[in-house]
Q: What sequence folds into this?
């Protein structure tokens, strides 16, 4: 047996609030991942199964194979729609760069500020592993 070290428990309501908040986030993340993976399998699994069948027996009509290929392509076009619907961080990041998604109060980043941010030139605070962590 491992001795149990006494610790300071959180207050009852604060502990429940903390757990409830994290469980909601975990549920939402699981839902998003489930939808993305489900759509991926529905769209691409028939293509890959048909591809293997075509290699083994050469019995798949070309038109059917083309339909399954385009089904996979449709899945790829759905990802940019699904991500903003379920992920707030993704929506904020896209809003910074797409004029149609920007809020009126947000200033548009200039090309100079973007290039300065992405280059190694210009003043920069000293970063170390200690500062990053």
A:
């Amino acid at each position: 047996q491992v001795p149990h070290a006494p610790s300071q428990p959180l207050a009852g309501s604060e502990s429940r609030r903390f757990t409830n908040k994290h469980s909601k986030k975990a549920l939402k993340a699981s839902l998003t991942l489930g939808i993305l993976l489900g759509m991926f399998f529905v769209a691409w699994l028939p293509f890959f199964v048909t591809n293997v069948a075509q290699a083994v027996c050469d019995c798949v009509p070309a038109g059917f194979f083309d339909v399954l290929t385009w089904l996979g392509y449709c899945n790829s076009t759905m990802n940019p729609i699904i991500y903003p619907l379920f992920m707030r961080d993704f929506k904020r990041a896209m809003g910074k760069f797409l004029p149609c998604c920007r809020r009126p109060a947000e200033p548009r980043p200039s090309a100079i500020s973007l290039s300065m941010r992405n280059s190694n030139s210009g003043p920069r605070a000293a970063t170390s592993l200690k500062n990053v962590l």
